[in-house]
Design goal:
Structural class: alpha/beta
Number of helices: 9
CATH architecture: Alpha-Beta Barrel
Distance between the termini: 50 Å
CATH class: Alpha Beta
Order of helices and strands: HHEHEHHEHEEEEHHH
Strand order of the largest sheet: 1-2-3-4
Radius of gyration: 19 Å
Oligomer: single chain
């Protein structure tokens, strides 16, 4: 389907020098297939978004780190310069740092930015607190014209104010992470990064104990 679409608009792509982002993928094979179509960037992640229920309802998807590694391996094997975008699972600055350290060129934010002043939707008041509605991209609220395609959830998220505060928090998180790895550039950061597996106990131990 996507191959036919890209071939159909190939003249438009060349005429306007468009950049094509394709995906989402979660496998080596699909990543390599999209690289063969000469796309500019590939979104990686199926079922990992905060409001995504694709894996639960369709059985499709794997862990985000696993998906990223498979995509990056396909990119390396194909000797491609395609950009890899982590889409899903970025719930805090640390998760963003890990995705970039693995080799991603960019990450996508969903729930992180939901609730900010700049996010779509009205500010609601409930129990003396301000909220904003957050919908998954395939939720009923978004896909009302096709009610048989519901793979997203809907929720209220606390109002977070101006988005600049969040961007600063994530930027400072990345800067701090880079300093721990003695890295001045993202290239050095990715080269210096190493990864280990944690037990569930070790993972919980790393969290602030309140």
């Amino acid at each position: 389907m996507i191959e036919k679409f890209i071939n159909k608009i190939s003249k438009i792509i060349k005429e306007y020098k468009l950049k094509i982002i394709a995906g989402n993928v979660a496998s080596y094979e699909t990543t390599k297939y999209l690289i063969g179509l000469d796309v500019d960037a590939i979104r990686v992640g199926i079922g990992n978004g905060a409001m995504c229920s694709t894996s639960v309802k369709s059985g499709i998807g794997i862990g985000q780190v696993d998906a990223i590694i498979r995509a990056l391996t396909a990119k390396s094997d194909a000797k491609s310069d395609v950009k890899i975008i982590a889409d899903g699972g970025i719930s805090n600055p640390g998760a963003m740092c890990k995705a970039i350290a693995l080799g991603c060129d960019a990450v996508m934010f969903g729930r992180v930015l939901a609730g900010t002043e700049e996010a779509p939707g009205e500010v609601l008041k409930y129990n003396n607190q301000r909220w904003k509605k957050y919908c998954g991209s395939a939720s009923f609220a978004v896909k009302q014209e096709n009610k048989n395609y519901i793979e997203g959830e809907e929720s209220l998220v606390p109002y977070k104010g101006n988005v600049i505060k969040l961007i600063k928090e994530y930027r400072e998180g990345l800067q701090s992470s880079m300093s721990y790895l003695n890295s001045r550039t993202l290239g050095e950061y990715q080269k210096n990064a190493t990864f280990v597996r944690l037990t569930s106990h070790s993972f919980d131990e790393r969290k602030p104990q309140m």
